[in-house]
Specification:
Keywords: Mitochondrion, Transit peptide. The protein is 46% helix and 18% strand. By secondary structure, the chain is α+β, with helices and mostly antiparallel strands. The chain has one domain. The strands form 2 sheets. Strands 3-8-7-6-5-4 form a 6-stranded antiparallel sheet, sandwiched between helices. Strand 5 and strand 6 form a beta hairpin. The C terminus is likely disordered.
Length: 246
Amino acid sequence: RSSPDVFESRMEKRNEVKQQPLGYSKQGEFVRCMEEKARPIFFAEGLGTKTSKGGFTKDKTLDSILNVEMVKDKSAEEIKQIWNQYFAAKDTVYAVIPAEKFDLLWRRAQKCPSFLYALPRKEGYEFFVGQWSGTELHFTSLINIQTQGETAPSQLVLYHYPELQKEKGIVLMTAEMDSKFLVVHEAQCLANQVQLFYATDRSETFELVETFNHRSNEFKYMSVIAELEQSGLGRELRPGQVSDKS
């Protein structure tokens, strides 16, 4: 009553506070801004992603994982370190592929979009069909395809990101998998086989891929197993067997 001007001033400030979002404070905003400036946030995984049938991310873009703007000034080696350090702490498959190797792999994938891969099990092998869909490579067990046909769900998806290929000379790769069917080292074995069969310098090895796609009646399952064993990938995954690599 004694100071109407002071009262009105206090009411205005009170209204300002009411209009601020719940949980907002100038001090909290200041601290958040300072933290962001002090600590670069390279990754933004989960932003703008949608989950498709089977729990895999639909249209998983590089921007939904990596803050591309923040790494534009980084060298290829620095980006590789950032990518590897981030995914090393996660239970998944990842890689940084040289541009030349991906070029070869990609050209061949256009001509031969599918292949049969062999995964070593305790007794024998389990076969998986890998099918390219754009830069995504979907793996489904052969037995599921035989029983469910085209509706068989993916059990592993490899995502390749060529956005930095021209400027930095690298292609980033990561994956999602159905943990009910595969563990990380099994998924890694399948991912390594993509390099083995599609990015090989041996014409005999890639010829298996060509035969599977264009002369399926001539394709022999055992040829895949033989190639896998010769490369050492099959032996390394055998339970109880110690790798001879140091």
